[in-house]
Amino acid sequence: FVTHASHTTRHTQKHSTMSSALRRTIRDVAARAAAQKGTNPPKIPPRGAATTFTTFSSPANEKVDAYKVGDSTNIKWHEGSVDVQTREKTMGQKGCVLWFTGLSGSGKSTVAYTLEHELFKRGNKVVTLDGDNIRHGLNSNLGFTAEDREENIRRIGEVSKLFADAGMITLVSFISPYKRDRLKVRERVGDKFLEVYMKIPLSVCEERDPKGLYKAARAGKIKGFTGIDDPYEEPENAEIEMKVAGEDGVLAPPREMAQEMVKILEQKGFLSA
């Protein structure tokens, strides 16, 4: 018991000493900051007194040099020490976003993952962001209302931009049915954005129906399903279009489509730096 009490006393004294030192440091920092601004330092209340926290802001007549984000006015962009060009030169390629859009069952993910494999074999740094996969994690709290669809695309658009800015060839496979949402991503990503339209008719997608979703939507088991009771707005000027190979609705083999896209990426200079 005596040993425990002694230990407690020493611990209390040590804590008190540390607290005093910390308070002195805070006072010193506040005093130096105030001296630079020509103002009086904020008063630090004595130990044991009730403490309140104050949010410091610039005076009304002082221009705030900050990037306004939402309702915040004190968030600034922090530039890293490795620029995009240097990163891309080291990686031997240029970052970009290939945005696969089309109806469910049009082959977006199949072709995207086939392209990923082709590029990986060449030694390129590539990643695929699939709509279903993303809804298992990052977007697991979103449904399929128009508002949630918009947020779904906004989030993945920002993620794809981060990857592209890091020099990655980024393949994004999302139905992304609304033109305005795809346009917003295009504007954010800039000239690194390539839209890939899997131009497969609804009748062909519904006949294929690999997940049985069209059948469920026709039976009323799924509401707001793109192409059935929710619209799909076709791209008008997609950089790449993949069409039905013939009148019978048979698609070209995914590897052929992927190899064609590799050629396009080479022509546009994304596979070298």
Give a verbal description of the structure.
By secondary structure, the chain is an alpha/beta fold. Helix content is 44%, strand content 12%. It has helices at residues 2-37, 84-91, 108-121, 131-134, 146-165, 179-189, 202-208, 213-218, 254-267, and strands at residues 67-69, 72-75, 96-101, 126-130, 169-173, 193-199, 240-243. A five-stranded parallel β-sheet has the order 4-5-3-6-7, sandwiched between helices. It has a two-stranded antiparallel sheet with strand order 1-2. A hairpin with a 2-residue loop joins strand 1 (67-69) and strand 2. Helix 3 packs across helix 9 and helix 5 (146-165) runs parallel beside helix 6.
Strand runs, count: 7
Helical amount: 40-55%
Rg of Cα set: 28 Å
With strands numbered from the N-terminus, the spatial order across the biggest sheet is 4-5-3-6-7
Terminal CA distance: 72 Å
